[in-house]
């Protein structure tokens, strides 16, 4: 049984633990042993993207130290996975490059891990509903995650109706959304309108940053669309209130 | 905006104005998917594998050129000189202005026709000529429209993309008072026909024609321009003096190499297999030529580019100015080109502008990106644009240009992020506070110090205790 470390991501840890538990459930159903290294905090992307190389390198090295002993590292996020996979080898101090590359080689986004690595084609959940899917940028363009979540969703009975400009950024962009709130707001307004116009009941994606941005905008505009992380649906855990909804 | 006083430092204010400008927003919405769909169709038609192989070839070609730039430029100069032309080296925009003015004055020019050239924009040629009593006439339809409106281009290949059709009609009504006031100017065809008619006479008046160059060929001394209106041909072949304005990185070794770039250029830009006109010029008219200019000048502009060689920004010099990154940029699509405050907008502008006007002035631009990566995905020269924007952020951080509050916030966050136990405590307390504020509604309409978020969006409330705390409890 592969020993998998869950990189839960800072946003899931703080705002939506159910995504972490859903990821564990999917991994265990797929026959993995899941562990959650206690030393994890964040992948370091905020420092890296703010130009603070030295801090980013230190955080990356902390993550490598905490996670390199496992067979695989899996995260419910294309963005954090992308940072570990594509950026760590450039981010760390020179002596750490081989260890960064070794970690990068065994780190995967959850839907990609289930399909591309484990070869899973269906999940146990049965959720016969209509959804639309936002391809978060890092997952799509850094990791080429596009068909993987759709294939798994289809196996769970979900019909995905594609929105206009499904591959266009939602305007989250980490600190971008608060540094440039006017531009970010306009972008997420377009995104939520495109999603709603499909007539789908649910808006799904694989990154909590994008999801909180879209859910926050949909909620402010009273769009009435249920916003969820894809793993919640795949794990059949849709009894929790959707993102931004109360009990 | 003036070229000498970029409004780039006011990018945020510019963006706000752009978002509030209904005409601009309508024009941007109208233009949003045309080029995007065009490129996608061109890629599909050629075959994605061949298209991407061309991108590899383009990248390798340009890398080779940049590694041997001096040699190719000298070879090019020798060829141009041998054909009877003149090559002028302009280290700065100011040098280029002086060279162009001097040539125009020597030619006794009263009118100068312009094919589309962004290098002329970068050097502020139009204002400089006008200040010396010489009238520049833009002959590209888009450039003509914005010249009438007293504006600068908002896009490097579609300079008037920010203008709506009714606004063009208004500009033409005012600029062409000798035409029937009741004429029909409701469609693009009629507008194009009118501009063509007006410009036709002007082609014969000009003493000098200025064009840009998509490429310069070292092997032959030729320059290439691509246009869709044929205006470049008339601008360069009818006047008795032809000036080519080009930046140094436009050089390619051979005609075959130019062919590689041409195969990917229009497909990336507009989705055409080729632009309608691909025009080569190679020096002044020879004795046996039926037409052509008597004098042929090439102004080669550096303006900071050679300083990029050997730095983390060298890859930017592969750019062939197709505009694909701009067309696909969600930030550009939201605010348009003028908000960027200088000559080059979108992702390519966000990397190039700090290089050319300094990071102190241009530093806003590389920050105004979500790093969505669409630009790099469509770049025909495979320029890693987000990576280079991040390099600018690094330079800003090193120079302490990053705002103090951001640096402080990062510092505090990083201190906790490197101390997991304290981080756990801090996140638990923070999330508990947010939950209290959310009062079970699942969201917060406002959060202190997070107005950038909650001004226009609700903040989803934390579900419960942190994952790490819940997981630990479940393990016991």
TrEMBL record, chain A:
- Pfam families assigned: CCG (PF02754)
Domain spans labelled Cysteine-rich: 4-84, 132-214
Segments passing through the bilayer: none
Q: Which GO terms describe its cellular component?
A: cytosol
Alphabetized GO MF terms? oxidoreductase activity
The name this protein carries in UniProt is: Lactate utilization protein A
Q: Which organism is it from?
A: Pontivivens insulae
Q: Which gene encodes it?
A: lutA_1
TrEMBL record, chain B:
Cite the SUPFAM superfamilies for this sequence.
4Fe-4S ferredoxins, NagB/RpiA/CoA transferase-like
* One GO term (biological process): lactate metabolic process
Tell me the domain of life.
Bacteria
**Domain 4Fe-4S ferredoxin-type: start-end pairs:** 310-340
- The region annotated as signal peptide is none
Which ranges form a coiled coil? none
Q: Which UniProt keywords apply?
A: 4Fe-4S, Electron transport, Iron, Iron-sulfur, Metal-binding, Repeat, Transport
Identification of the protein by name: Lactate utilization protein B
């Amino acid at each position: 049984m592969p020993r998998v470390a869950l990189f839960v991501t800072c946003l899931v840890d703080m705002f939506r633990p159910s995504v972490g538990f859903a990821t564990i459930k999917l991994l265990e159903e797929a026959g993995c042993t899941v562990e959650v290294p206690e030393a994890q905090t964040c992948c370091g992307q905020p420092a890296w993207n703010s130009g603070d190389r030295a801090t980013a390198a230190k955080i990356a090295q902390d993550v490598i130290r905490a996670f390199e002993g496992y067979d695989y590292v899996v995260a419910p996020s294309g963005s954090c996975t992308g940072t570990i996979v594509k950026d760590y080898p450039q981010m760390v101090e020179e002596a750490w490059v081989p260890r960064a590359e070794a970690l990068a080689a065994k780190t995967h986004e959850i839907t990609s891990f289930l399909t591309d690595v484990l070869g899973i084609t269906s999940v146990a959940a049965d959720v016969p509903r209509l959804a639309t899917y936002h391809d978060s940028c890092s997952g799509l363009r850094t990791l080429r995650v596009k068909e993987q979540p759709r294939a798994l969703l289809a196996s769970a009975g979900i019909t995905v109706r594609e929105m206009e400009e499904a591959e266009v950024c939602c305007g989250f962009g980490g600190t971008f959304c608060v540094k440039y709130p006017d531009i970010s707001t306009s972008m997420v307004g377009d995104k939520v309108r495109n999603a709603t116009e499909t007539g789908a009941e649910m808006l799904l994606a694989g990154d909590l940053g994008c999801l909180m941005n879209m859910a926050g905008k949909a909620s402010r505009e009273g769009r009435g669309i249920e916003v969820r992380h894809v793993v919640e649906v795949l794990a059949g855990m849709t009894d929790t209130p959707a993102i931004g909804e109360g009990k | 905006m003036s070229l000498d006083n970029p409004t780039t430092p006011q990018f945020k204010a510019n963006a706000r104005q752009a978002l509030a400008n209904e005409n601009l927003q309508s024009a941007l919405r109208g233009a949003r998917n045309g080029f995007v769909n065009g490129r996608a169709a061109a890629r599909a038609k050629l075959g994605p594998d061949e298209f991407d192989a061309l991108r590899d070839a383009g990248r390798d070609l340009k890398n080779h050129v940049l590694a041997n730039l001096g040699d190719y430029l000298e070879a090019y100069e020798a060829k141009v000189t041998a054909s009877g032309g003149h090559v002028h080296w302009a280290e700065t925009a100011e040098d280029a202005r002086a060279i162009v003015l001097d040539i125009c004055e020597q030619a006794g020019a009263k009118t100068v026709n312009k094919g589309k050239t962004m290098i002329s924009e970068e050097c502020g040629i139009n204002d400089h000529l006008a200040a010396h009593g010489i009238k520049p006439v833009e002959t590209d339809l888009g450039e003509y429209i914005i010249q009438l409106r007293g504006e600068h281009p908002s896009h490097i290949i579609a300079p008037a993309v920010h203008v709506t059709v009714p606004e063009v009609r208004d500009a033409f009504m005012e600029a062409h008072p000798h035409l029937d006031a009741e004429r029909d100017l409701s469609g693009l065809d009629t507008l194009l026909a009118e501009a063509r008619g007006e410009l036709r006479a002007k082609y014969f008046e000009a003493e000098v024609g200025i064009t840009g160059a998509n490429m310069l060929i070292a092997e032959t001394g030729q320059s290439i321009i691509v246009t869709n209106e044929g205006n470049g041909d008339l601008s360069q072949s009818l006047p008795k003096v032809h000036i080519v304005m080009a930046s140094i990185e436009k050089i390619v070794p051979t005609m075959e190499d130019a062919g590689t770039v041409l195969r990917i250029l229009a497909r990336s830009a507009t989705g055409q297999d080729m632009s309608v006109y691909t025009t080569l010029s190679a020096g002044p008219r020879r004795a046996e030529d039926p037409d052509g200019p008597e004098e042929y000048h090439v102004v080669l502009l550096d303006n900071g580019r050679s300083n990029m060689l050997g730095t983390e920004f060298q890859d930017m010099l592969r750019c062939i100015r197709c505009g694909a990154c701009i067309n696909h940029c969600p930030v550009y699509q939201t605010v348009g080109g003028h908000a960027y405050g200088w000559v080059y907008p979108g992702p390519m502008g966000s990397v190039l502008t700090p290089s050319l006007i300094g990071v102190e002035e241009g530093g806003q631009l590389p920050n105004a990106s979500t790093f969505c990566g669409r630009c790099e995905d469509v770049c025909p020269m495979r320029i890693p644009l987000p990576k280079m924007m991040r390099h600018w952020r690094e330079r800003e951080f090193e120079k302490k240009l990053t705002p103090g509050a951001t640096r402080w916030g990062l510092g505090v966050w990083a201190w906790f992020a490197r101390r997991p136990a304290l981080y756990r405590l801090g996140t638990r307390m923070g999330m508990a506070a947010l939950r209290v504020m959310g009062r079970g509604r699942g969201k917060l309409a406002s959060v202190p110090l997070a107005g950038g978020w909650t001004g226009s969006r609700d903040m989803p409330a934390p579900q419960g205790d942190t994952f790490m705390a819940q997981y630990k409890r479940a393990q016991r």
